[in-house]
Structure prediction request, 155 residues.
Amino acid sequence: MQQEATTKAQSAHRVMHDSGVPLASTLLVESLEPTNGVHVTSEAPDIFHAACDGDVEALHHHKEAGADLNATGQPNPYSYKGVQFEKRWNFSAPPLVFAASYGRVEAVKALLAWGADVLATSSTGLRARDYAAQRGYHDILAVLDDAEQKATGQA
Prediction:
């Protein structure tokens, strides 16, 4: 049974890899060299999963471990128990986009404070601001608009 699950996961990983969409992996997280004594274990959610859930503590662990906060990818579908995208195999986005899409204002604030690019886009060309606006997350929209004005020198 476990071998069958492993084979399915490997097959899905190949599909993701062949399509050019990086699949977040806790194994990858575990192999990162932690800094400042922070250790991210295989039980920690991947950075995209943490962004979807608004798990600021897990996001902080990823940041401290040297994760690229602007990398695009998606939650590992085999470890993520949240809402799954129907066409997820072709979709990727940076953590900021996932946090904004799921209405996680504290995660959005933290990612921006740590240097996430407010202008970064998903594979569909939409920014975090676009997803927040579509979903009516006005508090996140205000945070993102402020960050965008600062990033573009309009503040």
Remarks:
- The chain has a mean pLDDT of 77.
- Helices lie at 2-19, 26-31, 47-53, 56-64, 95-101, 105-113, 128-135, 138-151.
